[in-house]
What we know:
This protein starts with a strand and ends with a helix. It is of the alpha/beta class. Strands 3-2-1-4-5-6 form a six-stranded parallel sheet. A three-stranded mixed sheet has the order 7-8-9, covered by helices on one side. Helices cover 53% and strands 13% of the residues. The chain has two domains: 2-172, Rossmann fold (3-Layer(aba) Sandwich), CATH 3.40.50.720; 177-286, 6-phosphogluconate dehydrogenase C-terminal like domain (6-phosphogluconate dehydrogenase C-terminal fold).
Amino acid sequence: xxxxxxxxxxxxxxxxxxxxxxxxxxxxxxxxxxxxxxxxxxxxxxxxxxxxxxxxxxxxxxxxxxxxxxxxxxxxxxxxxxxxxxxxxxxxxxxxxxxxxxxxxxxxxxxxxxxxxxxxxxxxxxxxxxxxxxxxxxxxxxxxxxxxxxxxxxxxxxxxxxxxxxxxxxxxxxxxxxxxxxxxxxxxxxxxxxxxxxxxxxxxxxxxxxxxxxxxxxxxxxxxxxxxxxxxxxxxxxxxxxxxxxxxxxxxxxxxxxxxxxxxxxxxxxxxxxxxxxxxxxxxxxxxxx
Length: 290
């Protein structure tokens, strides 16, 4: 599909895209770029990419460019590569927020803006780095595109075909709807996991508490092992939606606290039962057994 694929940020997501693209024969040559020469060399040694180069050099003859760095770094990267992109190049990204990414593209990509198709692969893990990359990371996972009005239909179609070639299911929505949805079901859960672990870690008896933590704590806190840099950038980029979700969650917690304080066991059981039924229905519909 593409002669040269350039991945800027060859970590978990970027590395997994490279592996999936190679599996599907989507690119003849895969070149990586990024901040760490050691990480890029490791990606070459692992066979994830074919070569590495500076961002500016890598994109000069690129057919498809994937921006797979934290969203806070994207404005600078866009500004650096825009003057060097060939007219035919398509640029897509893997950012978990879209409103800020689109704004950055409008501010920094100039006449190359029509070639930028924003995307968000809904896949990941608590581990980071190219050693965590997996060829099947996107298989049957969702990728959301938030196309721009400036995109030509063929540009969007080729971007969609690429992500489908990596194994994903592709849907489209506006950046605003995307950021509202993922503030609730992705960004908020990560903040809650970080907050729980931080609360316990700051207590004088933290070692004792961690020593008795078991499955429930493990499952709830798993995503607190994710990249702090990435999630810092996501929270700040999606600030307005995050504040709304945090306020709603705090209000819900205060309601549950009131039920416990007043010994309202019947109402507490109703809340828990409603949540259990909703969670079970979600799992049966959207997370079928393998």
